[in-house]
Design brief:
Two copies of one chain form a homodimer. Chain A is α+β, with helices and mostly antiparallel strands. Chain A has twelve helices and eleven strands.
């Protein structure tokens, strides 16, 4: 390794700074990395012998230490994000700290945010985002769960009217969360349907974590990866919440049961959270490929097989496999992809920042949104498909050793492939990108 | 399903007979299937909650019931093969019943076969095939384990001289097997190396299964799949076996330490076992794809998503996803591959039967071997790469549900992908196929 590194015209350290965005950022990341390295629970080696149920228990132990570090070192939300990225493994609270908090910030009124955000960021409540149903994924408008307005009591009553309407897949829903942001069809007093909106629903007691009346939930079982997370199901029967638990930043359900739009019809609010998730997926592909290529490259420099002179083939004279052209093709192409996706991800983040900056004219905002939506729709499926394929290529490039979980490559693949499906299934995304391109002609 | 089936111009039953090779064979398979279905231990649903260690214990339970059925119903080796195929899951004895027995048949003398085969087929001994070493896989000639001839005692002494020479990966070696066919460099009395040959080495006591002196072994740990198998490591230190434990059908190590070739230099003996393994891999790709496409097709006929008229999208009017063209592309292509690989596999089996039939002239045998070797070298990597990719395509085609192990698709993929690596790594095979093609010009 030292020999190979000495051949570069720059130092590994310089490259690290470039990728991290400067020496200061590298040192920040490393300071958090050092704290994590001192905690035995974050050592992944323990996880390879665990089944799903024990993986989840390990997830809870990780949460406990994570929280302790948060408090002790007074981590900012940026510190927390760095720590999650460094751990790079499912932990049930990621759903609270990322998707749940993000949705509140985008969809809740200032008053609602003041009520919920401090609780969520301090884990006084643990939330999850419950959208997908057993029979309803990509087609959000097909969601069957209902939230019916009850004028007498000024409440909303939530129901899962059918088996197919049961919420299925939300992370942290099965065992961890005590509140859920439930996406449901709003049914007005006259029985008309007004669309799908998020509702804040307490599902478990804050005292003893027992399920509240009318709530049925549980873990949906082992998955190919991501097994520290309790993806869950949720069936609701006549569960009532105050009207003020409907997230109403962009719409208002009035006391007399009228649904009104607030302010301009700014599409950025509708697509903001999803777009943010897709931008992150594009940017994070680099993480998976960076880890995979690091493992495979190191292996390829240590592993020797075959000698160039075929006649006298033994260990002493065998060549390092990275000197075989076919191995270079398998390892170097994914390295290029990792760099390409890193800088692509930075551009997407920049675009998202411009889109969400205050004071944009309506026209500029609309144009930027169209561009960001089209780019994310094209890049999300492309990047995840390429990265998944390359992770499997890298796994195979390590021969038998790549089949062992101790190599790290199997878990990288089984964790990563979910990104082909979540936050906009790849085939649907590609069709949206195609539609955006066709519109230009 | 019934509606879709009624549209075909033939019955599903007719097609089953065609694939099985006639009604008689279908009924034979089904009679064994019925026996297996009565045994709870073969129900795969139990396996999804188990870690590697518990999967292995389940493997032992399966072995126990498998043996009981074997004895009770007096299964022939053909019945046994059908049963293994129906179970289609790793079971530690597959290494004994397939690779171990096969190697004895091809490499041992008649006298040796008479000694070992009855023991192996009755599980009086449980064998494994120990070739791959920690640092030596594709390059068999690089194997470091030594078997040194000791003229005084007429014995061979086996040693693992280095860390890199430790046997690594052989299935059933870690805990199950009590004998191993160890591939090692034969070292003659004058210190010269005479090549790599198989040696029968007892590694555990037949009385209490404890390791014999000089033998160190164990399980190499959790893998991405195939976790009911105890892939193992093996380090040997001054382990002695009688000279008669060297498999000597095609060579003879004489009492005075001379190595002699027996009979014609028939290359069929050198490549027979490996070729057989590759032919089976080509033929078995159909099994994995048949299971995967069955699951994905049924899902695609039950799952509904999006309506053609976009404006009024709800569950009642949503279309079955198989009616979306993109879903057809994902599911129907692998179905075609399954059929293509089935008939390709049949052709390869036929070629192998001709190659191994008695009474061929030397020229015919050489020509058939060249053809079979080239075909297997081309087809093995092609078929396994395509099938692996399609299994992942099918998994994704089931959306979120494909990420759940309960769908069956994750385990199908993680089990299957080993075939890209074993029995001739795909890149090496493709290069051999290319070499065979270039030779023709």
């Amino acid at each position: 390794l030292a020999r190979e590194r000495s051949l570069a015209s720059f130092t590994a350290r310089q490259l690290t700074h470039l990728l991290d965005g400067g020496q200061e950022h590298t040192e920040h990341i490393e300071s958090i990395r050092r704290l994590l390295d001192r905690e035995a629970v974050f050592d992944r080696i323990h996880s390879y012998h665990l089944n799903h149920e024990d993986m989840y228990l390990r997830g809870l132990q990780m949460m406990e230490r994570f929280r302790a570090l948060c408090v002790k070192h007074q981590w900012s939300s940026k510190d927390t994000a760095v720590a999650y990225r460094e751990i790079y493994e499912g932990m049930p609270t990621i759903l609270n700290d990322d998707l749940f908090v993000k949705t509140i910030k985008e969809q809740a009124t200032d008053e609602q945010q003041a009520r919920w955000l401090p609780l969520a960021t301090n884990w006084a409540i643990l939330g999850c985002y419950a959208q997908t149903e057993m029979a309803h994924g990509s087609n959000v408008r097909g969601i069957e769960t209902t939230a019916t307005f009850l004028p007498e009591s000024d409440e909303l009553e939530l129901n899962s009217p059918t088996l197919t309407s049961v919420k299925w897949w939300p992370g942290a829903l099965g065992k961890t969360a005590n509140v859920a942001l439930v996406m449901a069809q709003l049914v007005l007093a006259d029985g008309s349907r007004a669309g799908v909106f998020p509702f804040m629903v307490q599902i478990r007691s804050f005292a003893d974590h027992k399920l509240l009346p009318g709530v049925e939930t549980g873990d949906i079982g082992p998955k190919i990866g991501f097994n520290a997370i309790d993806n869950g199901y949720l069936s609701l029967k006549n569960v009532r919440i105050p009207r003020s638990n409907m997230l109403m930043r962009h719409v208002e359900l009035t006391r007399d049961g009228q649904l009104k739009r607030r302010g301009q019809n700014d599409q950025r609010h509708v697509y903001g959270t999803l777009l943010y998730a897709r931008v992150n997926i594009v940017a994070d592909a680099m993480m998976a490929l960076a880890q995979g290529t690091t493992i495979a490259t190191r292996y390829s420099l240590v592993r020797r097989q075959f000698s160039h002179a075929e006649s006298n083939s033994n260990a002493a004279t065998e060549v390092v496999v990275l000197d075989h052209q076919s191995q270079q093709h398998r390892v170097l192409v994914p390295i290029c992809e990792a760099y390409a996706f890193h800088f692509t991800g930075q551009r997407m983040h920049e675009l998202y920042r411009r889109l969400t900056s205050p004071g944009l004219s309506a026209d500029t905002a609309a144009a930027l949104l169209a561009k960001a939506h089209a780019s994310a729709s094209a890049l999300k499926p492309y990047v995840t498909d390429v990265a998944s394929h390359s992770l499997e290529t890298l796994r195979r490039a390590c021969g038998g050793h790549g089949y062992s979980r101790f190599s790290g490559l199997p878990d990288l693949f089984t964790f990563y492939v979910q990104f082909n499906t979540v936050e906009g299934e790849n085939h649907i995304m590609a069709q949206q990108a195609a539609r955006a391109l066709l519109k230009r002609y």
